[in-house]
Amino acid sequence: MSELQSSPIDSPPGAYARFGFSLDDGIAGRAAIGLVVLATDHTIEFEWRRMLSLDGVAFYESRVANSAEITAETLAEMDGRIAAAVELIRPGEHLDVVAFGCTSASMVLGEERVFERIREARPGVACTTPITAARIALDALGAQRVALLTPYERPINDAMSHYLKARGVDVVSVGSFEHRDDNEVARIDRASLEYAVLELGRDPDVDAVFVSCTSLRLVDAIAEIEAKLGKPVLSSNHALAWHALRLGGVEDRLPQFGRLFTI
């Protein structure tokens, strides 16, 4: 067995200089936002980069293990994993807000439970979830009667409708793609989403359409769909980003992302 032999290291030729420096606020001088992303999610980070591309605003993400199969049972399994995921986001450094990126799990576990888990790792931090953000956004938009569009199967849709109604959101209709594979939900195309939103939204009893699920890609289409529909449209990622910014004290108006981002 050979031994490592030490040998002198020659200094590189030329002069060496040590420089002083000063510090600024870094990339998150206005707001530092933590985001917990599902392991299977393809979409939320992509859409958040579009909406949070603001000077002085930064988001930092961590992933939480989950099943690609969307059922109440698999969603509930995330309960004990949330705090550990939050602990990985900028340990020891300040965060203004922590957002949990799953609409259906927030409903299954309950928003309050999700906040408890986040605050196990970040005591006192401002928190939001997609369903929290959607409720607050709908109220800010003055929308009282809502159509709900999801990719979930009927039991989750029924539970979400009841959950929202119990918290003051009048869900007057529900539409769904009824597909439980989260990896494929992320590939539902714009034409399919737009058609479903317009079909649900044209009901005169509907004030706004909420598209639930962070895997669905809608942010780039929202302003155009709203123009066709004449009513507000919001999605999980869209509402979550808006609420995280507002919780972080960022009030920038971004009309390219639809009506919500003008308030």
Automatic annotation (TrEMBL):
Keyword Ligase attached = no
Keyword Aminoacyl-tRNA synthetase applies: no
One Pfam family name is: Amdase
Molecular function per GO: isomerase activity
Task: Keywords in alphabetical order, please.
Answer: Isomerase
What InterPro entries does this protein map onto?
Iso_Racemase_Enz_sf (IPR053714), MaiA/AMDase (IPR026286)
Q: What is this protein called?
A: Maleate isomerase
Biological source species: Paraburkholderia phenazinium
